[in-house]
Amino acid sequence: MHTLLDIFFNPPMAVARLGASPTPLESFEWTSSRAAHGGVQTVIAPALSFTVRDDGSLEPHLPKSIRFKDDDGSVRPVAPFFELWGRFQSPHDGSVEELPLTPSRLHELGITMKHIAIEVTASNFKAARRVTDSVSGVSDMGCSFTARVDIGGDDHAKHALNAFSRHTSGQQPLVSPDRPIPLGAVQWIRPRSGSTSHAEQVDLSVLRLRFTPAIGTVYGPPRAVVGSDRQAITGPIDVLQLAGTLEGRMHTIVPPANRILSDATPWSTYRMVTGLYDDPQPQDGYDGSDDGDSTSWGVVDDSCDALITATLAWRDQRYRAHARVFAGPPAFAPDRRPFYGVNDDLDDRDLPLVKVTRENFDEIKDEVVELFRRVFESAASLNLDQARTEGLQDNAAKTAATGASEALPATGPTSMTRDDKPWVDRVPDLMPGQQASVFSTTSSRGDSLPFTEVVPFVHSQLMDETILIDFLRRRHMHVRRLLRPPFGLIGEWADEPGPDPNPAFRDPRVLRDVLHDMRMPPYMRDAYYVPLSLTRRQYQMMIGFLDLLAEEGRTP
Fold first, then answer.
1. pLDDT over 70 (residue 345)
2. pTM of this prediction?
3. CA 456 → CA 140, 424, 426, 449, 451, distances in Å?
4. Cβ(118)–Cβ(158) below 8 Å
């Protein structure tokens, strides 16, 4: 008999997406398609999907099409599955093999489904994180809310994740147990044998769990009734001039049925930039941040992070497996891929930097082509005019020195205009009416979003591999100059940084390294509200690839 070494979930991490529809979104995959004009574009194609039957077992099918919304407009949630696997050692040669757990495999170990227990804990700590004391570093956990369910190995019912605020003596709970916030549901799938039309592609006897996220709504205290939604400002008006006013369209903050939260917690009196709290970035990412005196409306949503734990008892030992799921908003552009995803972040942490050589040139070329296609898809989904205005206004709030320099692009009104040389290239010719201003000037063609309108003209032709490689070879110095370096590792930082940036990496202690400019990706922000860049691994790959292309005699 094989020896069980440990157990693990596959995948160990997944993203769920909120949606009010009772029908989860079916699976799809990204693929490439040649458009009628010959360009390459990303499209989605249906993939093998599961329907959970009334008895908790699965029915596989291949959808003919993908529907993201129901007829009433309800968004279909993304509800991922997790498989429970084991790592087994052979008694004959000591080899180790990873296999999915099934009832028959449990039987070989002399145990049953009753020897497995599942625990799921889902929490939302957003408000608690906001009200973390700046001196003690202690969060008020009464402003968080958590749901927990325990499921036996032979329990295949669907379990709701109803969250409320765990709190200590002296803390006021934000969410009462009597009126919890639903964070979704989990179901331990019933394994089944037998054949289906898709049985050759999937083993239905594998032990699986499904996480279904919440519907995607907000909750608040009784006073969170209506607020002002300021319309886009078309002239040079600072938003601070609107403080204390009711400019803009009035809208409902929280639906009446969801005004169930306590108004006596620190979350209801929270204000950013007071020195009382840590003010996690982005500072203004809460309801009320740009209303009146920036006091919070006390509103939370039903997104969450969840920890899934499976415990298996065998031979007087307990084996544990963990998986994590992050429930966030829907993907409103599902056929547009980000150039920087969770997988890229993990690769940046776990994999070594890429060294580009003649031997791996073709492999790296494929990665570079794919990266540029993802860059175009990200850029095509961005309101570049709004991002530019916000970024340059943020620069002005940090420093008055926003002019151009010989070493780096402009960080003020001339950014990405004809005066921003030598970094700017085709943009001025495509929008000749743009003046030196942090606001977009309607072009001579009448475009209301001139910077956004030029993105397809600049990037779309680079979706073609031949054109892209030729461009990178001819303009390698220009492309290298336009790539914003990533932040360096702490060990790379100088003990006492000077005012001038290091050209190889950025340092968050250097003011110029946290100012927005037209370098790629232009005016986009990361989670800390500073200019976004490629990952270290992506950046080094691009630099190495450009250097190799620059060598004489190199052919693609």
1. yes
2. 0.90
3. 47, 16, 12, 13, 10
4. no
